[in-house]
Amino acid sequence: MALGAAKTFVPGEILLAADLNTLNTNILNNALTLISPLLADLDANGFDLTGLDELAFTDSTANPTGTGRLRRNGLVLAWAVEDARTNTVARALILQATTTGVPAAGIGTGLLFRMESADEDPADAAEIQCVASDVTAGSEDTEFRVFTRTGGAAPTENVTFRGDGGIFFARADPATPAAGRLYRGNFVRAWGNVSITPTLNDSYNITSVADAGVGLVTITFATDFTNATYAAVGAISQGSAVVGFDNFAAGTVRATLSDNAAVLTDFSFTFMAIGDQ
Amino acid sequence: MALAAVKTFVAAEVLFAADLNTLNTNILNNALTLISPLTGTLDVDNFDITALGELAFNDAAANPTATGRLRRNGNSLVWGVVRASEPNAVFALQATTTGTPAAGIGTSILFRAESADENPSDFGEIQAVVTNAAAVEEGDIRLLLRSAGGAPVESHRFAADGTFLFSLADPATLAANTMYRGAAIKSWARINATPAIQGSYNVTSVADAGVGLVTITFDTDFANANYSITSTGGASTTTFIVGFDTFAAGTVRATITDTAGTFIDAQFMFVAIGDQ
Amino acid sequence: MALSALKTFVAGEVLTASDLNAMNTHILTNPMILISPLTGNLAAGGNDIIDIDELQLSDAAANPTASGRLRRNGNALVWAVEDARTATVATALVLQSVATAAPADNIGAGLRLRAESSTDNPLQLAEIAGRLDSVTAGAETSSLAFTTLFGASGLTTHTTVTADGGLAFNISPAGSPPANSLHVRAIVDVWGTVSITPTLEDSFNITSVADAGVGLVTITFNTDFPDATNYAMVASGDQAAVAIGFDTFAAGSVRVMIRDLSDVAGDQRFRFIGIGAQ
Fold it and tell me: Domains of chain C, with CATH numbers?
């Protein structure tokens, strides 16, 4: 027994009130000692455990034994479920954070990864936040924001996966970009396939093209560049003709089309542009 | 004590059976009141607690005190471990089947908050999905997000084949400093005068179509013939003019001339972008 | 009661020591039967519950009833909080992994997602992990990696949100690229706008441009290509009737040739894009 008997009566002993009281209060006053440590599984019978401070899991060195079980295996706390699904996704974890107030844009829920640095124990390292940029009924927009650290500062927004399908790069390009990485500065911002008329056959981030004269086409961007020093390159849709660009502005540029005799001439052409936005 | 004594015997009191029964059944009938609330740490001694309803954590306003502990710190449920070195994973979500697993089976984590009219509101989900459930398994990670009030749908995918997929078509309004599907380069190559591919992406082959004419065949085609392809020619001390014609979803023809307009076989390069 | 009375005394019965002992020890030796199953909520009173092997949660088929509660709803383990925030993020789950010794660069903590395959139960399917790339005091940098199951290679880091603000695609897959995908080889590696002087007016991944003669400009890359062959350069001039070519390819530089349509070299402003197998 975890809780010992306060008294063991001997045969023929006179039974005194005090002894009975002691027997009774021994149990009543030492309820925790009575039950702890447990001697077997505790059946909560569908009831709750409330007022918890910490739950300490022993390392069972094994995965959960059944569905709906939480167990520690080494360093890993594992939640396991099993059902009859064979080819669909089980939502195994839900992180829910609601408000007592009126939700507004910016409300969200996060998952933080924390470890240790040379002088911080623990140290917040990276976070995924799921945030609404619009909470308006019937027009909610959400995104996954990834926060990481740089230069010892607290985690800040780095890359955001948007609900409209885009990836937003929050940070300026590094001084030395690493090979094979995508940054804010190295993806195409606009492209177009322009007919000889000129009309847009297809495009990306282009509002319109306009005839500016023989061999001259003004291109207007939908989302402008930051300045006029972006790069635009193109090709004529036939041989022996060249396309150049002039009149650079943040929101427009003019294509100049000439034949191999340097005579401005209408051609169909394609182009792409890249630069700071 | 949480459970009070139903009777306290007084000295010299006559001891009745009924009183002894009452003493005993008071404990037997009120076991929960006896132990709850706990007056100290409950040691489960490596047993299980089963059939739980809810676990309600006080806000300890502090992190776990030792390895292998779950604690609430403000809004955060914190799982903390102390280790000597790798590995990384400290939390696992596992969803298996009683049936035969097939492609599409997976596990996810859902992020929920609140919107103007939904409480709670599903904001986004991260799914891990098996794409090949046979030996030499493959899987991808899919992000699901909301747009314009719709339910969360796949927006991005870290695909099982190692590529990154923009799952949604370009929106009508493109945000600044944001990359969309349409901004991804779909093909490039450097082609020598033979013509032969020296370096490329998404090009199956190049074929000699005549002097200064090269037919380029894409591996994964464009959606139509309206893509953009830009080019430059180059060789020692001489420039060439490279244009393109005969656009098709899967092929295009490069036309290479000197500045006099004479077709000539020469090295050239191109970059192509468009809808797929 | 889960634990029954060992004896019920009858009126007038002689009370013996052995009966009292038995009654007492019956409770003392059967505490589990006494308390289990619970007949109501167990209040921990702010104390801990330790040395747990497994927690098995019943399917409540409902979300948690209040803030700070963990509950099972179907397959989902649901952690719910509620407070007065209206426009900020609640960090609902923290995965914390600290070291017994001094931490070293690349220490990390991750969330593993598991499923099942025809041969593995469970199958280690994916992982999302945060990592401190540098643990140096006051100079910590971190990244977030998405790891997927990549065939025979097993769990492989797929994409990393890097500390320098980029997305690193760690796999260069072979085979036909899927439509609308982004491949590491399809990322623009360099671009620039070069004045007539020549000077660099704007750029990405360019260290410098240098005058190499009339109509000749040498472009030096900051981060090189892997070799001299596996990249493409395209360019256009800032006016009509300019033909631009490239030669003298090297992993770290390339020369631009600018000519008019009579094939005469001449200095002009131009713009270029380069892409390859970085």
Answer: 1-55 (no CATH), 56-93 (no CATH), 108-173 (no CATH), 186-276 (2.60.40)
